[in-house]
Amino acid sequence: MAQEPSFSSIFRRIKPYLGQGMVFLGALLLFAGYLLGWTANNVFLVICVLLILVGIRGYVSAKKAGR
What pLDDT score does 4 carry? Predict the structure, then answer.
């Protein structure tokens, strides 16, 4: 009988892609916010930009670690 994968093994597999996902999510939220007219809300904009910046940092560090 096959054992279910643990959280750590799943996290290890998706860790290299988390940065890309965060950048995509931040950009998607910015686009959705623009369409919905949420551009006057600074908290929303800052959260989206932070998602993008943290995602870029994670993507670059994952690429450097995978050399």
Answer: 82
Q: With beta carbons less than 8 A apart as the criterion, state whether 54 and 31 touch.
A: no
3-state SS assignment for residue 65: helix
Whole-number average pLDDT of the chain:
89
**In Å, how far are 6, 22, 38 from 55, measured between CA atoms?**
24, 5, 22
CB 20 within 8 Å of CB 56: no
Q: What is the three-state SS of 1-64?
A: CCCCCCHHHHHHHHHHHHHHHHHHHHHHHHHHHHHHCCCCCHHHHHHHHHHHHHHHHHHHHHHH
